[in-house]
Design brief:
Elements: H1 6-18, H2 27-42, H3 48-71
Helix pairs in contact: 1-2, 1-3, 2-3
């Protein structure tokens, strides 16, 4: 059975973290779910380059999330 490489796993989660939500109003919950799943996956990566790449993206997303919280912004786009 095919098992994805660590780099494929890291890139998959990075794509999920960067992709906009398809359901209006669910962006925050979806992103929180992806953050939790990516953090869990990070613990199982043995490729140091893949782990570093995913960790860097998680740090970026968490920093952006804290900026939205501090500024009082919901992080959702106005339409």
């Amino acid at each position: 059975m095919y098992r994805p490489s660590d780099m494929e796993i890291a890139l998959y989660f990075i794509r999920l973290l960067r992709a906009p939500c398809a359901v209006p109003g669910a962006e925050r919950e979806e992103k929180e779910l992806y953050i939790r799943q990516a953090t869990r996956a990070l613990l199982n990566l043995s490729n140091p380059f893949a782990a570093r790449l995913l960790k860097k993206e998680l740090d970026r997303v968490k920093a952006l999330r804290s900026l939205h919280i501090l500024s009082g912004s919901s992080g959702e786009k106005d339409e």
